[in-house]
Design brief:
Structural class: alpha/beta
Largest sheet: 8 strands, mixed
Radius of gyration: 21 Å
Distance between the termini: 22 Å
CATH topology of the largest domain: UDP-N-acetylmuramoyl-L-alanine:D-glutamate ligase
Shape: globular
Number of helices: 15
Strand content: 15-25%
Number of strands: 17
Helix content: 25-40%
Strand order of the largest sheet: 4-3-2-5-1-6-7-8
CATH architecture of the largest domain: 3-Layer(aba) Sandwich
């Protein structure tokens, strides 16, 4: 209850959810002695694959006996997920104490919720000066609260695509503009660029960072991977690795995992062996990213059928998700809930051969589009219906043997699903 109350107070410190600026963050960090200057950090920017890349990197570093602090956003089930220190999620009492300290020092000054969370993370991170901090950039990077570091160990650029366009001027809602926002201010260290969805995006990224003196490690130029039967082969300037198949489903996850491997092999001064990598990629913990629900209240409703939840919410996410679904020989049923500011038709246009589509309301999210409105908005789907709850949506599907259900469209929806289950 204490944690919930202080979170509610912090959310009211600024009238806007997002107000792109670095001034408020810098001012508060200065009062705290600029803790961001005292940590070792890997920065992660991009549109898709950030969380999975972070979790793969974390799993490998843990196998090498390194301690990590991790800052991600948004959380899926509880806000504590955003605050990992010494390889563990921060408990309620520690989080209350941390937030209370930052709230007192901020002294009622206007600051967005994400900004004050970022400051809180950085302040706590200085307690572990030897730990590796893995920090995910938020909406964009150039004016994101996480873009206040003066140095880092490396910058990871995951797959970039169209998302959060409502925060850009109408005439600038392009991938090129998003690439500029995310990569034009990367630090001078090492830049690892993941596999992108097109040559044009690759060229735009390379052009944007061409004057950055960092060492650049680019997929298909400086590192690559292939999947052959059950073996995963990785290669970079340090040589080739024959690896076991990672524990995350979906070949698209190999893109994220290979980026993590490329990054960890570039961390100067850290000893990570091939064995650490081999073991680490079979122990990756991921939540709401093509996650199969193997037990629980919702799983009981589908009995022997497969039930997946995935938080993808943009066209690039839909594209790779459909590629995975196409690899499965069964009928697929999608339950969909989305936020109002997404391109709903563009998202669903990537899904092929779907047996049924059920739209739903996302509970506790006033900025979500209502399920019945979403149903009426989506075109080109014949077998589409609306149900007002997750449970009703599942039970309304006429499941046959080997059919699968995928609940997708929003990380907020994924959190509700996991809490219900």
């Amino acid at each position: 209850m204490k944690l919930q109350k202080i979170v509610e107070r912090l959310q009211k410190l600024h009238p806007k959810e997002i107000d792109l600026s670095l001034d408020r963050t810098r001012t508060l960090l200065k009062k705290l002695g600029n803790p961001q200057d005292k940590i070792n950090c890997v920065s992660v920017v991009g549109t898709n694959g950030k969380f999975s890349t972070i979790q793969a990197l974390f799993a490998i570093l843990k196998e090498a006996n390194y301690k990590c602090n991790i800052f991600t956003s948004p959380h899926i089930k509880i806000i504590n997920e955003r605050f990992v220190f010494n390889n563990k999620i921060l408990g309620d009492n520690e989080l209350v104490n941390l937030f209370s300290e930052i709230e007192e020092i901020n002294n009622g000054k206007q600051i967005t919720f994400f900004e004050i969370l970022t400051v809180a993370y950085l302040h706590y991170a200085k307690k572990y000066p030897k730990n590796i901090n893995i920090i995910e950039s938020g909406l964009f990077h150039r004016f994101d609260a996480t873009n206040i570091l003066k140095k880092n160990l490396a910058s990871i650029v995951t797959a970039i695509g169209l998302d959060h366009l409502d925060w850009l001027p109408k005439e600038e809602r392009t991938v090129k503009k998003i690439i500029f926002e995310k990569t034009s201010n990367l630090l001078n260290s090492k830049i690892i660029i993941a596999k992108q969805s097109s040559d044009e995006i690759n060229k735009n990224i390379e052009n944007t960072i061409k004057d950055n003196p960092s060492k650049k490690i680019i997929f298909n130029k400086n590192y690559s991977y292939i999947l052959k039967e059950n073996d995963f082969y990785f290669e970079d300037e340090f040589g080739g690795l024959k690896l076991p198949r990672p524990n995350l489903p979906g070949e698209f996850q190999l893109e994220n995992i290979s980026t993590a491997i490329a990054t960890v092999r570039q961390l100067t001064g850290y000893l990570v062996t091939n064995e650490h990598i081999k073991r680490g990629i079979t122990k990756i913990k991921s939540i709401a990213r093509l996650q199969e629900l193997k037990s629980g209240k919702l799983k009981d409703l589908v009995k022997n059928n497969l039930l997946y939840v995935d938080g993808s919410h943009n066209p690039l996410g839909a594209k790779v998700l459909n590629q995975y679904l196409q690899s499965i020989n069964s009928n697929k049923h999608i339950i969909l809930g989305m936020m109002s500011n997404k391109d709903h038709n563009e998202y669903m246009s990537y899904f092929k051969d779907i047996k049924s589509l059920t739209t739903i309301d996302i509970p506790n999210q006033p900025n979500a589009i209502k399920g019945n409105k979403l149903k009426n908005k989506i075109k080109n789907f014949k077998n589409i219906k609306y149900q007002n709850s997750i449970k009703d949506a599942i039970t309304s599907i006429d499941l046959q043997e080997n059919d699968i259900i995928l609940i997708t469209g929003s990380l907020y929806l994924a959190g509700e699903v996991l809490n219900l289950n």
